[in-house]
Amino acid sequence: MKNSKILGAVMAEVLLLLVCLMIRPDFFSISYQPSTGMLYGNIIDILNRSSEITIIAMGMTLIIALGGTDLSVGALVAVAGAVALKLLRWDVLEYNTPGDYTVCNFFWVLVLPLVVCTLMGMFNGFLVAKGGMQPIIATLILMVCGRGVAQILTDGKQFTTGYAPFKVIGQGAFLWLPVPIIITVVVVAFMAWFTRKTAFGTFVEAVGINRSASRLSGINAAMIIFIAFAITGLLSGISGLIYSSRIMSNDSNNAGLNYEMDAILAVVIGGTSMTGGKFSLAGTVIGSILIRTIVTLVYYFGIVSEATMAFKALIIAVVIVLQSEPVRKYFAKRKGAAKS
Amino acid sequence: MRTKLFAFVLTLAVLFTASSAFADVTIAFSQIGQESDWRTANTDDITKAITSHPGWKFVYDDAQQKQENQIKALRNFITQNVDYILFTGVVSTGWDEVLKEVNEAEIPLLLIDRMPDCADKIEYEAAFGGDFVEEGRRQIAWVGEYLKAKGRGDEAVNVVIMEGTTGASAQTGRTEGNLAGLKAYPNLKLIAQQSGNFTRAEGQAVMESWLKSLDKIDVLIAQNDDMALGAIDAIKAAGKVPGKDIIIVGCDSVKAAFDAILAGDMNCTVECTPLYSKFVVDALEKLIAGEKLGKEIVHPAEGVFDTEGGIDLGTVTSQKAADVIASRVY
């Protein structure tokens, strides 16, 4: 059952890429770019630019499996960027030409944004797990005021930096690949290990299916929920560092805008049900890559700006419909009929 | 006790009349919110000019980018019976009713920056705002004239246009100007248009894809500087030299764009100034003196800044960025 859902997302992705291959065979060409020390091609771009959403969606998968949602992730991306840039450029409130330097120790530039975002995630988790609030309401608080916090931190201004080590996070190369891809692989691997090699994943599914029953069987449901929100906060912070490193500045208005929607979409395309229960991290990764593939196609094939939204909506609607229960049952029946 | 109270009330009354006699003109400003550096500069400029003007009292409302807040603010201004209202709307529609209320209260209205769609149905004293179409035209004209100056006037050149947020007045206006401008320069060939949503990150991603899908890009027209700055990173990542292999023209003229021009990464930026105070103060002084101003929209004088200067665009001649950077305030 679960595998067939992932299969839907995989098939959609493969189909989409096949269409590209037919229209423009050179879509898949990959070359080596000596000036950056990276591989260069559309596939690399898709993987690279899907990083932010994939990383957040790892946490979102857990929260959706618990039967909730986290709407604050996009705002946390902005907060992480604002904290990092504030530490890098503490000295300038007035505009100055950005240079290759940092005001605070680089260690804190990396760690403090993550700490702040984790604390904000814990705040969400506390409201949901202990306060008994609906996740959609609890996380709405930070969704709304998170960007305000980011604005206050940077005095409503956009700071720009030229600090080279910071640039590595979003634009650097490692093993001929863009660093965001490497970070994503590490995060996904860790989350896969954490949910499948420890009991955490099973606990999440148990709480998502029936919170009362899981509590009666001795699972600390509140703690599981709290941890899931804290993890999502941390992952949003990582995503925020990548985003701000790509543009070497903070953009409190636009950083992470609508990321919550893309992350939820990635999870749903990946076959995890919004009602909670069983989840699939692999499906989420594919869902996220699928979303980015659509965006890249729009840019690559020059679909007019006005039609972009409709084009995205159309593809996603088709994927979601294909995954719906009645459609899958219909296909299963036909398959059964063909066999007999 | 009674006399004391009476004296107190009397003092209050005297104070009140006195203060209203000194601050004889109250000017209220309903601003959209702090959405960008441009907007911050716009607010600071107007606030500073009015508060420092003798005899003027300033009432400011920040609507946090919500129309309902702005409507509330306008109604508050009516209740407070302010003398003049400065208004720029977060969206273009839905203002008919509240602006008619302002008219009925007989409070003179000054429209600045973004004009409401209902402007022809209401009374206002003056209007002042940027000319997006002209900015778009100037972007293209600069490229055309620059190439002519370089002796490449007849060379076929591939142009891509990176648009702003689809439907925003700056996007529709600048696109209109871009496309109109292209007609005057047959050697410029438009090969792609796409929205970069006015942000650095999306400008980067769109350019990244274009560099792979299009054979040869000679000119990038970005409808704001942020997208141009994002695109510069993508061009560098593709092993090309921004400003040389690809001519880059931005819009807005923020300081970061000046830095990019000085560094040779960018070629030109067309100004879209947020500094409205000169006009606002001038218009208010005239209105207070009893003069009438026209209903047509007055546009600010804006420049074009590039690496060398001296490119004649008909309505304006470009200035060298290095010469003016010191005087820039936003």
Plain-language structure description:
The complex is a heterodimer of chains A (340) and B (330). Chain A has a single domain (2-339), classed as ABC transporter involved in vitamin B12 uptake, BtuC (Orthogonal Bundle), CATH 1.10.3470. Helix content of chain A is 70%, strand content 4%. Chain A contains 15 helices and four strands. In chain A, the strands form two sheets. Chain A has a two-stranded antiparallel ribbon with strand order 1-2. Chain A has a two-stranded antiparallel ribbon with strand order 3-4. Chain B folds into two domains: 2-124, Rossmann fold (3-Layer(aba) Sandwich); 132-274 and 303-327, Rossmann fold, CATH 3.40.50.2300. Helices cover 43% and strands 18% of the residues of chain B. Chain B has eleven helices and 13 strands. Chain B has a seven-stranded mixed β-sheet with strand order 7-6-8-9-10-12-13, with helices on both faces. A six-stranded parallel β-sheet of chain B has the order 2-1-3-4-5-11, with helices on both faces. In chain B, β1 (25-31), α2 and β2 form a beta-alpha-beta unit. Chain B starts with a helix and ends in a 6-residue tail after the last helix. The mean pLDDT of chain B is 90. Chain A binds chain B through residues 24, 33-36, 38, 40-42, 45, 49, 95, 97-98, 151, 156-158, 160, 171, 243, 246-249, 251, 253-255, 295-296, 298-302, 304-306, 308, and chain B through 34-37, 40, 163, 166, 192-195, 197-201, 204-206, 208-210, 212-213, 229-230, 233, 236-239, 255-256, 259.
